[in-house]
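Supplementary material to the annual report.
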Amino acid sequence: MTEEHDHFIDDLAAYALGSLSESERARVEAHVTSCSTCARRLKEYQALAGVLPVGLDLVEPPPDTWVSIRAGARRRRQPHGPAKRIFLPNWRWATWPLVTGLVAALLVWNVLLQREVSLRPPGPEVEALARRPGRLVILAGTGTPGASARILVAVDGHHGHLAIAGLRPVSSERVYELWFIRSGAAPVTGGTFRVDASGRAWVAITVPVSLDDARAITITEEASSGSAAPTGQYLLEARAWR
Amino acid sequence: MQAGDEAALEMLYKRYAGLVFTLALRIVGDPELAREVLQDAFLRCWDGRETYDPGRGRVPWWLMGIARNRAIDLLRSRSHQARLREQQPLSSAAPASGSLDAADAAALRRAVASALESLSPAQRQAIELAYYGGLTQAEIAQQLDEPLGTVKSRTREAMERLRVSLWSLIEPRGEE
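Predicted assembly:
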């Protein structure tokens, strides 16, 4: 084997164990598309990684877990049914109108946000934001389909506003909490908030870490006092931003 | 299961839920979170059944990969790393309470335990920190205060030893 292959074999083992950085992973993925030897070895290592837990002392899961999984599977069955396939031939034709519609919706959303900014009582953050929004983070409703949010971070990088729609109102004992997730460090909160009866909120937030240091930004539901770390499901999530 | 058969999902659950839960618990260290990982892994498996490629390996190892990734995501979103490292090292004494269905399940368990035992402590630690700790090779090197190249070579050597010992037992057979 060549030196280059030796180098990649080191990385293949780490890749299979999920122990490479994003850039290293991308390099391995690019390499295995053109190297059948490494591609085969990677499959072997991945299978080995899958079998490692067999060496642990077995712990049985709570007995009612299967009932929850079955209920979840039934809820998800519908989209895989034949009814969906009837529409498949039209998707190709629908692609461009769909993209155009999405772009238009995003534009309308951003215009509305800007308008909402302009209607706020003037304050240093809002003024700065309205004049020159620094960065935009778009959160998708990964745990709450239909929910969406935008974080407009001011040019100072520390202040911002969160606009959110599509979350259900919570009781007085609960709040939503914004989190900045970093690699190898504890998550940091950006503040708590509640939504109005229509599921919307517009709140000033603190951006406690540099966006460049954050791996993900997420929103969870927590107790009204807030939490030291996210305990609820990720309701909305962003993993990339400009 | 690719045809959307709920009974097949149930069979997969009966065979592997214990193993997935054990893996998740080992990583996140919290039964409630481990249960969340278990549910999520099986539902993701169900969602991905139509696109599952048998060439990627047997279903159980695919399922285990999904569960491990989800558990690491949870782990990295919480400050559990310190507690995790205080937990016991990879066990080499796996009791035979039924989770694997195949006739060779007990043999596989013994083989995995024996293969892990044959690794040097440093090699086991490398696997432990990478797979269960969710650390990158660079993070492991930093934590152990060792050169990155040493950590990568050690990880590779460990996986090679495991491959030599175990591959004949786990190679894809396409029966799922």
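Residues 88-119 of chain A form the longest helix (32 residues).
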